[in-house]
Task: structure prediction
Amino acid sequence: MAETLADYVALHQPVPERMLAWQLYGAGFENLGKNGQPVEIPVPVPADDEIVVRVDAVGLCFSDVKLIKGGSSHPRILGRDLKRNPTIPGHEVSVTVVKVGRKRGGTFSVGQRYIIQADVFYRGENAAFGYAIPGGFAQYALIDKRMLEGDEGCYLLPMQKRLGYAEAALIEPWACVVAAYRIVDRTGTRPRGRLLVVIWRGAEKLDAISELSSLLRSSARPSSLFLSDDDGKRADEMMKIARESGIEGTRLPLPAELSDTPKLSVDIPDGFDDIVLIAPPSCEVLDKFIPFLGTGGMLNVVVTRGLRGTITLDAGAVHYRGVRIVGSDRGTLLQQYRANDRRDLKPAGAAWFVGAGGPMGQMHVQRAIAATNPSQTIVATDVDDARLHYLESRFSQIAEKKQIKLCVLNPGGFSKDSALAEKLSELTGSRGFDDIILLAPVAPAIEQGVRHAAHRAIVNVFAGVPIGTHVRINIDLIFNSCRIIGSSGSRVQDLQHTLELTEQGLISPNESVAAIGGMRALRDGIEAVQKGTFSGKVVIYPHIVDMLLTPLNELHNTMPSIAKEVAKGNLWTREAERALLEEKLVQ
Result:
């Protein structure tokens, strides 16, 4: 029976007993659904403390690809027998409440609309929506107490009903972009944390020793100190200060050889919160200590002379575990934690987006150009000419109106790396980039990017590179007060902030849509995401069952009445969505 948009919005039709869903039964696209089609399963029935929501739109994400390819080996469902207990991917959703359990009646009501923070934590355990919790590759979803009474409260955020379904679904990936500019690093050692201090000969010339003494007496002091010092008298004094401050102190022998260094980690299996290296003799020494950092750990390097060379950094640990390295060549300690704690793009600066042609890169560039105090120069690079052309066609006129110099480059168009380096240097007047956002998840792209960092630059490892992706960086980058940062996903507060920006009209998630489709086209859509077919996002409308996957710029061939509501031929709008649903909805 056909259903009008008005009936759909008002929930005039009863919730069916069965629904279509793309269940995942194992690793690989062949295990998504059955025989290349969604399966028909019962619509969930909520318990007293649960609710059921209708999935109105779901955005497809490369994280979904990783889950499908990984299956039971994916970290968020590790060991789950998907053949017996399948899950349903999909975490970028816009939903409407259709059933409310008896105990939830005071909080939820039928017809309310929400977006979902997918990264769910319940009693300290991660139970992400679209991973451990069946997600949005279905027409309906069950929301249980893990999401309604999570460690951060409720993971459903109410929204204005005037927002479109696709628009709302894409607030989640947009929140990941917004969160990348809201990273707050510590400005000192972690209070009650585990501090390792290693002091080499020559440290007596530094103010760091007196600063360390002050630190041990401060209110932000660690709970445990591990000290290695070649000056026995100085070490005795530090241990005394630690005892007087209620800090558990442990003396460690100064490693005579680099090969001895790993012995320091024996009693700290989770790593140190802070490592302070005072007057280290070489970059090779630094390489030995970096792996000892725990989650959120910071390595602070204090030197008396010009330390030269390169160090090895795990870019995946920067992105997923929040590992940081700070330092300078001026012999300070505490100030180095606070040096360059800028979060957002530098106003009137130069920003480089490496791998900017994909959906997330397009969002980053869109945000940068729309900023109130934007960068003066924006460089977007990608190895795909079609993606770069799409990006340039979308943003060049807007950038020109705001007097922003937008330059798109394909590194493959340069005969040598040196020619590309010369061009990048020319674009910044030889001073380097103030902001480098790394969207290409490969080590060579990261290494190439950091070579062009300006003094006090922010280098953001946005791409989800695996832990163990090691890159070589020049120690001068650290001593120039550059900060290499990264984050994974977003938190509830980031999603709420992004929702508010959307409702205020300050960002437009609809502009990220590149292709749309119905429920049976979902597999085609997720395979397109894997192949990088589109420069923007793919959005599926689960209650439009049989619509083929269609790029927006091809709608005029098959759905001209909908195409005329698409702005500028390739920008999705609320009006286009309403026309689509009026024409295609089927109960």
Observations:
- The longest strand covers residues 51-60.
- The chain has a mean pLDDT of 92.
